[in-house]
Amino acid sequence: MNPMSMDRDEPSSLLSFSTNHPLEQFVLLAKGAKGFACAELIKQVLEAPGVHVFGELLEMPNIKELETGAYATHYKTLNLFAYGTYKEYLENKADYLELTPAQCKKLQHLTIATLATQEKCIPYSVLLKELDIKNVRDLEDLIIEAIYADIIHGKLDQECKRVEVDVALGRDARLEDASGIADVLADWCNACEAVLNSVDRHIQRANHHKQKALRHQQAIEQEITYIKKTLKTQSENDDSGAGGGSETHSAPKKNSGKGKTPRNAAKFWQKNT
User: Fold this and answer.
1) What is the pLDDT of residue 181?
2) Can you spell out the DSSP letters for 116-134?
3) Averaged over 234-240, what is the pLDDT?
4) Which residues pair with 162 in a beta bridge?
5) Which of 137, 77, 149 is nearest to 112 (CA)?
6) Contact call for residues 33 and 4 (beta carbons, < 8 A)
7) 232 pLDDT above the threshold of 90
């Protein structure tokens, strides 16, 4: 069957139709689907593994046609998966399709991603309430599944009973959320600018200390050079002085060698007298 066309009697099997992007196959099929085929397409995309964003599909004209009429519930459910949480589903079940276990789990995963955008350390108590889970063991299993599915990256802190999120999947954003996103980005830019200014100040301070240290080192080296020269000059002067003194003292020895010994000198004196 041509994958671009879907009819009421023979819906296409989407799981066997592979493309590079998980949602792309559904977007392509939505171009040729109408009415019931679009409704069945929505059911499949909500359960398809690896599909966690739905904004592009919601923008398809054939899907928008379901907003009113017999398949409005399908359209609302698709909106729920794009923007909503599991708690919203529980509070208004009559407005949505009855979800399968796989769809429930996917919506719970998406809810964790939404909570992660609000706080990076999510207490178990909040998750238990938002996800309608009765015990911690089941909650931790769900979180681990979300980590392996690349919904969030983080770790479980079982001692403090919370999940610490490093990175979370970005969900679809409504047009009315644009101003809030712009404010967040503006705050982020301001924070980055403040950090850069602080780094610049630290660099300037470090350069100042470096120049000061270099000047101090040069002064020490000059002082060492001066001291070496002074010591060398003093040593040369001492050597010169020591050399002159040795010649003065050697003269008497030389003369004493030619003269008489003390005993002979005494005999000489007695003889002459």
Assistant:
1) 78
2) HHH-SEEEHHHHHHHHT--
3) 82
4) 123, 157
5) 149
6) no
7) no
pLDDT at 185: 87
What's the CA gap between 149 and 144, in Å, rounded?
9
Q: Which element (helix H / strand E) includes 165?
A: strand 162-168
CB of 97 closer than 8 Å to CB of 77: yes
Q: Can you give the three-state secondary structure of 25-48, one letter per residue? A: HHHHHHCCCCCHHHHHHHHHHHHC
Nearest to 12 by CA among 30, 46, 22, 24: 30
Q: Is 100 left (phi over 0), alpha (psi -120 to 50) or beta?
A: beta
**Number of Cβ within a 10 Å radius of residue 114:** 17
Contacts of 74 (CB under 8 A, 6+ apart): 38, 39, 42, 43, 66, 97
- Sequence-ordered list of residues with C-beta below 8 angstroms from that of 104, at least 6 positions apart, any chain: 86
Rounded CA-CA distance 142/46 in Å is: 18
Note the pLDDT of residue 244.
56
d(CA 266, CA 49) in angstroms, rounded, equals 132
Structure tokens, 110: 């998406």
Kindly report the number of other CB atoms within 10 A of residue 108's CB atom.
24
Report how far residue 121's alpha carbon sits from residue 65's, in angstroms, rounded to the nearest whole number. 40
> Are the C-beta atoms of 86 and 129 separated by less than 8 Å?
no
Any idea which residue has 């799981």 for tokens? 15
Classify residue 261 by its DSSP letter. -
212: its two tokens:
């000061």
Q: Tokens at residue 185, please?
A: 């980005």
- 163-203 tens-digit pLDDT: 999 999 888 887 777 788 788 889 999 999 999 999 999 99
Query: For residue 170, what is the DSSP state?
Result: P
Do 9 and 35 touch, CB atoms closer than 8 A? no
